[in-house]
Structures are given as structure tokens and as C-alpha cells.
Design goal:
2 domains; three-stranded parallel sheet; Trp-tRNA_synthetase; ligase; mainly alpha; two-stranded parallel ribbon; Tryptophan--tRNA ligase; ATP binding; Tyrosyl-Transfer RNA Synthetase; Rossmann fold
Length: 325
């Protein structure tokens, strides 16, 4: 089965991103035909600085390569290097009902967030996303719950195209992330995010001293018992989840190990586990940062592989719709 996922051009990956999604991608690439791309065209819909975009693309590529995306096992490239994405998106614009786009939750949210920049790209974003997926005839797309609506629209577009021009695309399914939701270190009732408070999350490439400081100051709960109870003890429960996922120990085993110990010793050990677990990522990132030409070559090579698949699909689509005789 072919799997595809687009990655926004930001290098700010935290452990919540890794444990909640990236680990799943790495497992998928071991057994499936995976395609990962830097979604630079999608990023144009939000305010950005042109002079910073190229560097952001390289930085994102470095971060995801360091996190484990393997160009020997997966196709990895930059979206704009394969122009067939936008060619197919335009064709899909002619079969996608505008009412479907206007009801997209993300469009409504982005319109409120960027009131001074409500561009057509925000509205047609899901059409380009559908093109990203169907161009490679992917069978499944790993996404979070907030993207399921877009996958349903992709299925709708595939169905409408097939009805109008004949069977061409299968309808992909969403693969919901199996990873646990990692919460903020400063407010365990909120999801970990790249917010204005740098103490709420741990970067995948964080330095050891910073990791230890953030874990030791992470919000816990009243009492000193290391017990998993998300409703009554959200702080320590979040830290137990992180401990469990990095150590591969069960929650019950962790509770048993720290039954007679307090929060301080638990946090000290958790910091050690995270620091050790993230060390390979830090080292790989440094290697790629010192050889950006290698990263650019990986992206260009991936684009060539992707383009071969994309051209076959566009040729088939053109024949179906009656252009390029």
C-alpha cells in the first residue's frame, strides 16, 4: 500500500510531534511504499517572509531526516519541485463543489486567525491536498483528527472525478495517529505545542541541560505519589506517558518502580531517559547541518522519483478529460 504525508516547512519538531506521529511514519516506511514531502506550496497561504522560506525548507528536511525518514526506503522531496501537484489541483478545482470548501473547519479557523490575509489559497487548500494524495494514488494518509475532514473531501473529489470521467482514482483512507497525545509541561490540560512559552515543550533536538531543567520544573500535582490518573493527576500522568513511550515500559511497571519514591527522583530519571533517547537525533541533525548540499541532493533525487509517478497520473488524467491530444 502506498502511504503519503505532507510536512509543513518548519524545523520546530517537539517530542509530542515525534511520539504522536513521526514514530508511526517510521514504522510505516519499514513495510509500506511511503512518500513524504515538504509542503512548501501549502505554506504560502499564511503570512511568511520569502527570504526565510528556502532556509525553512532545508531546515525542515534536515529535521525530518534526522528524526528517521530514510530516503533509501521512502521518497522524500519538496512539493514545488513536482509541478504536477498544481496541475492536478487545478483540474480538481473544476470538479470540487465550492460549498464543500466553504464548510471546511480549517478554512473557518484560518480565516479568523488571518483576517487581513483571507486569500483564495486558504479556501482551496484542501483541493491541493487532494491532488497531493491522488497524484500518487495513495491508499492511506496518516493524519491527526483535525485533518480527517480534508481526507473525506479527497474521497469526494476522487468519487466525482471517477463518475464524470471514468474510474481513475481509488478513495484513500485516513490512518489516525496511534501515538498518545502528549500534553504541555506547563499546562497539562493543553496539548504540547510550539507556543510562545518555550517551557511547555521539549524540542527533538533540545540540549541535555535544557531538557533536564524543563522536566524538573514541569507541572505535577498535589501529593507525591507517582500514579497514572489523567483526570485527577494530569501533570504526573502526562510525564508517566512520556516515560512509558521513551522507555517502552508499561504504566503499571513505572508506577510499581516509583511506589516508594517521590516526584523528584521520578523526574530525574525521566530527564535521563529523554536525554539518552534524543542523543542520536541531535547527532544526526548536526551531521546534516554541516552538509546541506547532501540534503538538497536528497530532495532533488526524491523529486525525480516522485515526478515519474506524477507524470503517469497526469498523462492518464489528461486523456480522461480530453486535453493534450
Amino acid at each position: 500500500m502506498r502511504i503519503i504525508s505532507g510536512i509543513q516547512p518548519t524545523g520546530k519538531i517537539h517530542i509530542g510531534n515525534y511520539l504522536g506521529a513521526i514514530k508511526q511514519w517510521l514504522e510505516l516506511q519499514k513495510k509500506e511504499d511511503c512518500i513524504f514531502f515538504i509542503a512548501d506550496l501549502h505554506s504560502l497561504t499564511c503570512p511568511y517572509e520569502p527570504k526565510d522560506l528556502k532556509e525553512s525548507i532545508i531546515e525542515a528536511a534536515i529535521c525530518y531526516l534526522a528524526a528517521g525518514i530514510d530516503p533509501e526506503k521512502s521518497i522524500f522531496f519538496t512539493q514545488s519541485d513536482v509541478p504536477e501537484h498544481t496541475r492536478l489541483a487545478w483540474i480538481f478545482n473544476t470538479v470540487c463543489p465550492i460549498g464543500e470548501l466553504e464548510r471546511m473547519t480549517q478554512f473557518k479557523e484560518k480565516s479568523k486567525q488571518f483576517r487581513k490575509n483571507i486569500n483564495a489559497g486558504l479556501l482551496t487548500y484542501p483541493v491541493l491536498q487532494a491532488a497531493d494524495i491522488l497524484l500518487y494514488k495513495a491508499g492511506a494518509v496518516p493524519v491527526g483528527k483535525d485533518q480527517v475532514q480534508h481526507i473525506e473531501l479527497t474521497r469526494t473529489i476522487a468519487r466525482r472525478f471517477n463518475q464524470k470521467f471514468g474510474q481513475t482514482f481509488s478513495e484513500p483512507r485516513a490512518i489516525l495517529s496511534e501515538g498518545s497525545k502528549i500534553m504541555s509541561l506547563t499546562d497539562p490540560k493543553k496539548k504540547m505545542s510550539k507556543s510562545s512559552d518555550p517551557n511547555n515543550c521539549i524540542s527533538l533536538f533540545e540540549e541535555p541541560e535544557a531538557i533536564r531543567k524543563k522536566i524538573m520544573s514541569a507541572v505535577t500535582d498535589t501529593g507525591k505519589t507517582v500514579k497514572y490518573s489523567p483526570k485527577t493527576k494530569p501533570g504526573i500522568s502526562n510525564l508517566i506517558t512520556i516515560y512509558s513511550l521513551f522507555s517502552e515500559k508499561s504504566v503499571k511497571e513505572i508506577e510499581s518502580n516509583y511506589k516508594e519514591k517521590g516526584y523528584a527522583e521520578f523526574k530525574k530519571d525521566l530527564a535521563d531517559i529523554i536525554i539518552t533517547s534524543l542523543q542520536p537525533f541531535r547527532e544526526k541533525r548536526k551531521e546534516f547541518l554541516s552538509n546541506k548540499n547532501q540534503v538538497i541532493q536528497i530532495l532533488k533525487s526524491g523529486a525525480e522519483k516522485a515526478k515519474k509517478i506524477a507524470e503517469r497520473t497526469i498523462s492518464e488524467v489528461n486523456q480522461k478529460i480530453g486535453i493534450n491530444l
